[in-house]
Design brief:
Number of strands of chain B: 14
CATH topology of the domain at 123-230 in chain B: Ribosomal Protein S8, Chain: A, domain 1
Shape of chain B: flat
CATH architecture of chain A: 2-Layer Sandwich
Radius of gyration of chain B: 21 Å
Largest sheet of chain A: 5 strands, mixed
Order of helices and strands of chain A: EEEEHEHEEHEEEH
Helix content of chain B: 25-40%
Strand content of chain B: 25-35%
CATH class of the domain at 123-230 in chain B: Alpha Beta
CATH architecture of the domain at 123-230 in chain B: 2-Layer Sandwich
Largest sheet of chain B: 6 strands, antiparallel
Oligomer: heterodimer
Order of helices and strands of chain B: EEEEEEEEEEEEHHEEHHH
Structural class of chain A: alpha+beta
Shape of chain A: globular
Number of helices of chain B: 5
Distance between the termini of chain B: 6 Å
Largest interface: A-B, 43 and 53 residues
Strand content of chain A: 25-35%
CATH topology of chain A: Ribosomal Protein S5, domain 2
Distance between the termini of chain A: 60 Å
Structural class of chain B: alpha+beta
Amino acid sequence: MGSIGAKEVPVLLSPEGRRIDGRRLDELRALKITAGALHEADGSAYVEWGANKVMAAVYGPREVHPRHLQQNNKAIVQCRYNMAAFSVDERKRPGLDRRSQEISKVISEAFESVIFAEEYPRTSIDVYIEVLQANAGTRCAGIVAASVALADAGIPMVDLLPAVAVGKVAGEIALDLKKEEDNFGEADLPMALVPQSGRLVLLQMEGHMTAPELARALELGVRGCRSIYETMKQALRERYATGTGAEPQGAA
Amino acid sequence: MRPGPGTYRVDGRIYASILGLLQRRPPLVRIVPLSGRYIPKPRDVVVGTVTDVQGTFWLLDIGAPRWTPLHMTGTPWKIDFGETEQYLHVGDAVVVAVESIEATGRIGVTMLGEGLGKLEGGTIATISPAKVPRVIGRSGSMIRTITTLTGCKVVVGQNGRVWVDGPAEGIIRVRECLRLIEEEGQRSGLTERIQAYLDSTSSPGSTHEHRSHVLEEIPHTSGPSREEEVRVPPPADDTEPARPGEGSEEEGGPDPAPGDDY
């Protein structure tokens, strides 16, 4: 997005191999995850990833509205990705647009493939992803936040779902693009990984890459996801840290 | 070892499917959930509110994934078709027991049984269903402490809905106790802290008689529960203690905690 051509293309990669914010090609931006950030939701998480700020809330499993969407053998997963009007420098027109509809759909499908939906027939698991501040890679930040929120909500899943975008910047494959790199780079490849099986459940691409570049990008992305995965688990441990190691006492 | 609740098996390895505490009770490995909605089990006693009245049944909100029908045949009243409205209205609180969970997810409840029925007056507080055992305490010690020290009637549903009735000031203190349990439920010495809170807030005026009455009872009610807090994990069961930061409390954890695979 952004007005390419209007602005001068910044120097995205220094001769020493440093990126615009000083990172190396295979470095992630700083990632901070807070599990259980909201009180009223069944599960929630807040993610700050570079300059991205994303909140996710999970409700459910609960009754499906409207009723006709209900499936009698499993729960449906409904994600809504939304960008706040103030999340970008030019005011974003609020509400649904083509882009957020698409992202909501691909995220819903990614989560459908990891959630054990058969355990809750005729219900809905609703995931709300609100982007408060955007700086490239918000769908990945949204997936990370939503995934931690789902775990916080006690939803049974194959695994957490770390996600990251890999791109091509100044001819080089780089991990976790920030805004300038996304705007002026040559390609962007967001992906979400199931660490348990090694499967990718979300993979999109914008721009062009050669086959060897794509292979390199996938390898770099999977490595990034595995590192993000650890941060996600750590966030959940911090939320549920037990002082004594006692299991919840039996009721009887 | 076989995969129990909260786990699944792939290629002979057992993984956690929910966030919780690892528990090994041969032949089962299971995960005890730490969060999430109330998932009904048969024989659970739950507190619910009426959300709809139909000709032969009421719909209840018990905090489960689905609305829960209470059929008129499951009540102690003799009701003809269409008379349901004379007995329970939208917003009324009831204590019911879960009878059955069907494959469709439909939840069957009944009001027939000891301690079940309509709740008159009072107010409902909500806590996480995972914290319910903490509110009750070992063999009811915690709930006994709370009721005796506040002079309130309390009904704790397995679904995390807690019905409270009594003097207004007592209800406030019960709610504060529930909040303390919700926030600090995992830490040790919970019963002591609840007791300290209740002692510090009991006013000399109207609650005085409760207090003097209670002073005799404290040693009995708190004795066993204090022991329970210290002795962790309880010796009689082979519960895997939570090892913070060591994968026992693991979400979706392919990172199979040592010995997780069989």
